[in-house]
Design goal:
This is LuxR family transcriptional regulator. There is one protein chain. By secondary structure, the protein is mainly alpha-helical. Among the domains are: about 1-110, no CATH class; about 130-170, no CATH class; about 180-250, Arc Repressor Mutant, subunit A (Orthogonal Bundle); about 545-725, Serine Threonine Protein Phosphatase 5, Tetratricopeptide repeat, CATH 1.25.40; about 740-810, Arc Repressor Mutant, subunit A (Orthogonal Bundle). It has 44 helices and six strands. β5 and β6 (about 235) form a beta hairpin. α11 crosses α14 and α30 (about 565-580) runs parallel beside α32 (about 600-620). The radius of gyration is 33 Å and the shape is globular. About 50% of the residues are buried.
């Protein structure tokens, strides 16, 4: 079975699967085809595995995955995770030079990175010797050709196929090479190549012949010349760059006419719903506004129904570019759909722009309710982008427009929005707004409003007293199993992930993360998935699995269009691990996180202030650590503030000896309360029960020598070199090794050895190398070597063996 991904403005949703099903037979294939036609995503996944006959091995080929739509990538992820149980060889081709760290395909490749079922076949550039073999007999200088092309096989073969005779006249670009080959074709051949380029990467042979009558004569010429390649049903270029270069060569009027002819042919009834996006593309290129309006919205709706939200957004944008003469009533609906699709696919700035335009249009139309609803959406999106003040202003403007309006969906949703905005400030009015929203929702029968308002009320218990988890979880499961509440499922689920991770409920958080990630992937909810992945990074950080934490964080930070709020947890993860290891400055990441939202917002910035305090403490800057902790505590003015956020800040204020004002929030649930009361043993035990070794070690720093020694061992096991240095300093204090004491002790030693030098001598006598001494004392090998040199000089011995013998005599006189 074989399918293709296309480089269209709006790729076909599930295009490769549609291609594969074209010739598939059997009941299972028919059922799957029906599920695709019905845009039934759940049925597609349910039937997919059944298509493969357990008695027959299948080869499933998906070409050009770098052009895949979002729904296809999700389908490939689904198959890849089950490949071990299926009789299938799944082959995916892609151009690695067309995907970077932020390409959607990079996420799928990352998911498969550790799979034992994956084999990769990479194509390396040609060597100069290989280029010489290819160019033998052509009169082309192999060395010059290799320098020109860098050994890229396509560039090499295109230049050679262009038939350049003079060495000085080598084509300067691939486009020139392609144009040179086209110039050698007859008129019929060029027309065939032009029509093929317009029809897409793989043109259906029947379509090509209808669009270009000259193909009857010119196709064979193109195939013989190597300009085109064909299989049983399709024809295309050997490389997409060749197709694009050909498109650039077609005169504008001719290109438009070819698109128009393709549009006419493909629009012949019965209309295949899978080509709606292609029809919209051809209509756009042909300048046929009416056809764009006919096919664009329908294609966007189909893409949205299949969960391909990004493709839907692109199709609505295409439609809007041609919507100038359309009635405002229609145009505003497309703006709103574009905004929703953009939001769900993780493009918040585009969503805000379209909702703003829609609100202005609703205002001009005198549609007060519609304007209020659009402003409500703007408010929510601005809050997600960290523009809290603007978000609150938009939310209040929405509610003002609804003053005096009776119960209606717009009023209910505006009240829900205000409840959620109040939650960000731990404002007690959130319950009041949510209760009003619930009452209106019940009165008008708006289920989604009622569920979301119930969730807002239940979250009060989670954020203010660490209770109510089961209630919120039940509401969330209701949302993800109720038709029409998909977005709400993403909102509640990502919120649960966020708070469970921050509250150190790691098992609970990891269960949420797995379920939310699967849900968001299935429904193309690109806006919420980074929250789950960021929470996974924090959980791995707490557990001490720092390599895994960094992998999760990098997954989010390298994604395109990731919003500032989605980046906070990954930024904290990377900054804290680097600081704890003493490897890299964390200031830039934490500065970016601090700038992600407006000042004095504890909900988002509480963890940032705590991280900044810890980073300062790790480098020994207690004054800055104290200032950062106090800055965070100054924002904790609400008696309903999350005790986990406040407690984390109090820890650092306590640890560096700063003034500790408990403030209005009361902590009866977190291990932090034990730390700041001086009960380090209870705190360490609580952190250990939660599965947080680093936090347990921090608590142990407040204990006696055995406790701090245990903390030091934990820091060493985690690779937390900077934290180990602080533990070592704490041990020195407990053992009375202050600078004055060290000077007196050194002076008392008959050979002038310091305490550290005596420690090094003891390890040296036991036969340890510099590297082993460094690991044992948690210093660098270079520092260990300096200590050894100082010891040799003070003892007046020549080498390590003599020093070891000296130490042995001292211990066994």
């Amino acid at each position: 079975m074989r399918g293709w991904c296309d480089p269209l403005t709006s790729p076909r949703p599930l295009g490769p699967l549609v291609d594969m099903l074209a010739d598939a037979s059997g009941e299972q294939a028919a059922g799957l085809r029906a599920a695709v036609d019905a845009s039934d995503t759940e049925a597609i996944y349910a039937r997919l595995a059944g298509v493969f006959d357990n008695d027959t091995a299948s080869v499933c080929i998906v070409e050009d995955v770098h052009w895949a739509d979002g729904a296809t990538l999700d389908l490939l992820r689904f198959l890849s995770r089950r490949i071990a149980s299926l009789p299938v060889l799944l082959v995916m081709s892609y151009r690695d030079d067309e995907i970077g760290a932020q390409h959607p395909l990079a996420v799928l490749l990352g998911d498969l990175a550790t799979s034992a079922a994956v084999s990769r076949i990479g194509l390396q550039p040609l060597s100069e010797a290989a280029v010489a073999e290819l160019s033998a007999g052509t009169g082309t200088n192999a060395a010059a050709l290799h320098r020109l092309t860098g050994g890229n096989p396509f560039f090499v073969t295109e230049v050679l196929a262009a038939g350049s005779d003079a060495r000085e006249a080598l084509p300067r670009s691939v486009s020139e090479a392609v144009w040179g080959r086209l110039a050698r074709l007859s008129n019929a051949g060029r027309e065939t190549a032009y029509a093929t380029a317009v029809c897409g990467p793989r043109a259906d042979l029947a379509l090509l012949h209808e669009v270009c009558p000259a193909a009857a004569e010119g196709l064979a010429e193109c195939l013989n010349a190597g300009v085109l390649v064909a299989d049983a049903d399709t024809v295309g270029f050997r490389h997409e760059l060749a197709r694009r270069a050909t498109l650039d060569q077609i005169p504008a009027y001719q290109r438009r006419m070819l698109h128009k002819q393709a549009l006419i042919v493909l629009a012949e009834p019965p209309l295949d719903p899978d080509v709606l996006g292609t029809l919209a593309f051809h209509a756009d290129q042909a300048g046929d506004t009416d056809a764009v309006i006919d096919y664009g919205p329908a294609a966007a709706e189909r893409a949205s129904a299949l969960g391909a939200n990004r493709e839907a957004a692109e199709l609505y944008a295409l439609t809007l570019r041609h919507a100038g003469a359309m009635p405002d009533e229609q145009k505003v609906r497309w703006l709103e759909q574009h905004a929703i699709s953009s939001h769900l696919s993780g493009l918040p700035d585009a969503a805000v722009g379209s909702f703003h335009d829609a609100a202005a249009l609703r205002r001009a139309m005198g549609d007060r309710l519609g304007e209020a609803e659009n402003l409500r959406q703007v408010s929510y999106l601005l809050w997600l982008l960290g523009r809290t003040r603007e978000g609150v202003e938009a939310g209040r403007a929405s509610l003002r427009l609804l003053e005096g309006v009776g119960p209606c969906p717009e009023l209910a949703w505006s009240l829900v929005n205000m409840a959620e905005l109040a939650s960000g400030d731990f404002d007690p009015r959130r319950a009041e707004y949510a209760t009003r929203a619930m009452a209106v929702g019940i009165e008008i029968g708006e289920t989604a409003v009622v569920v979301r308002a119930r969730a807002a009320v239940a979250m009060v218990g989670v954020t203010s007293g660490d209770t109510g988890w089961d209630e919120v979880e039940a509401i969330w499961h209701e949302a993800i199993t109720t038709e029409g509440l998909t977005e709400l499922g993403g909102i509640i689920g990502s919120t649960l992930c966020w708070f469970a991770a921050l509250h150190h409920h790691l098992g609970r958080a990891e269960n949420y993360i797995a379920e939310v990630s699967a849900f968001c992937t299935t429904h193309d909810l690109g806006v919420f998935l980074p929250f789950a992945t960021g929470a996974a990074a924090i959980c791995a950080l707490h557990r001490g699995d720092w390599p895994r934490a960094l992998a999760y964080a990098d997954d989010v930070l390298t994604r395109p269009t990731t919003g500032p709020m989605q980046r906070i947890m990954p930024q904290l993860t990377v900054a804290l691990i680097g600081a704890r290891r003493g490897e890299q400055p964390a200031a830039a990441l934490l500065d970016e996180a601090l700038a992600a939202t407006e000042p004095n917002e504890l909900f988002r910035l509480g963890p940032v202030w705590a991280a900044r305090a810890e980073v300062a403490w790790l480098v020994g800057d207690d004054d800055t650590a104290r200032a950062e902790a106090q800055a965070g505590l100054a924002a904790a003015t609400s008696p309903h503030a999350d005790p986990w956020l406040v407690g984390h800040l109090r820890r650092w204020a306590y640890l560096v000896g700063g003034p500790l004002d408990d403030g209005p929030a009361v902590d009866t649930v977190t291990p932090y309360r034990h730390e700041i009361s001086g009960d380090w043993a209870a705190a360490a035990a609580a952190w250990t029960r939660l599965g947080c070794p680093y936090d347990a070690a921090i608590a142990q720093l407040g204990g006696d020598i055995p406790a701090v020694e245990a903390a030091l061992e934990t820091f060493r096991a985690l690779g937390a070199r900077a934290a180990a240095r602080r533990a070592t300093q704490r041990l020195a204090q407990l053992r009375g090794r202050n600078p004055e004491t060290r000077r007196k002790t050194t002076a008392a030693d008959p050979h002038g050895l310091t305490n550290r030098e005596r420690d090094v001598l003891e390890l040296l006598a036991a036969g340890h190398s510099d590297a082993e001494i460094a690991a044992e004392l948690y210093i660098s090998p270079k520092t260990a070597n300096r200590h050894v040199g100082a010891i040799l000089a003070k003892l007046g011995v020549r080498n390590r063996t003599q020093a070891a013998a000296f130490a042995h005599r001292k211990s066994h006189p």
